[in-house]
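>> received
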Amino acid sequence: MTAAKNTICIWYDTDAEAAARIYAQTFPDSHVDAVFHAPSDFPSGKAGDVLTVQFTVLSIPCIGLNGGPMFPQSEAFSFQVATDTQEETDAYWDAIVGNGGQESACGWCKDKWGLSWQITPRTLTDALAAGGDEGKRAFDAMMQMTKIDIATIDAARRG
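>> returned
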């Protein structure tokens, strides 16, 4: 297997494989490509433990590294997933939050490993791109939400 030229490396404590499998079950164009075991002991594990996992999330190549607890996830990195319908928004949100994750504000949530996700309906992105009063109304509506409600954003866009 040839690795991609540029790959996102995501640091996990010990659960890179479990995370990759949840992402593969949740999102289209996502799959686990390979699991590599450590050839010898390393600072946070033993020979034979899963060391890295090559996986794809929504066509984006990733490597999960089981590096131990030294570097926890932060909101400085997130996946932003564009959605077209409320059903799609709800499905992704519920899969992330419902598998031990947590809600945040403005369409952000975290999975159980602390990785941040933005579940962002295209209508919100379109409203912000339109700018002006439409963008302001949509932005103000978004600021009151956890998971984005498309009907409320669309109503705000119309005024």
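>> Strands lie at 8-12, 31-37, 50-57, 60-66, 78-83, 102-103, 108-110, 116-121.
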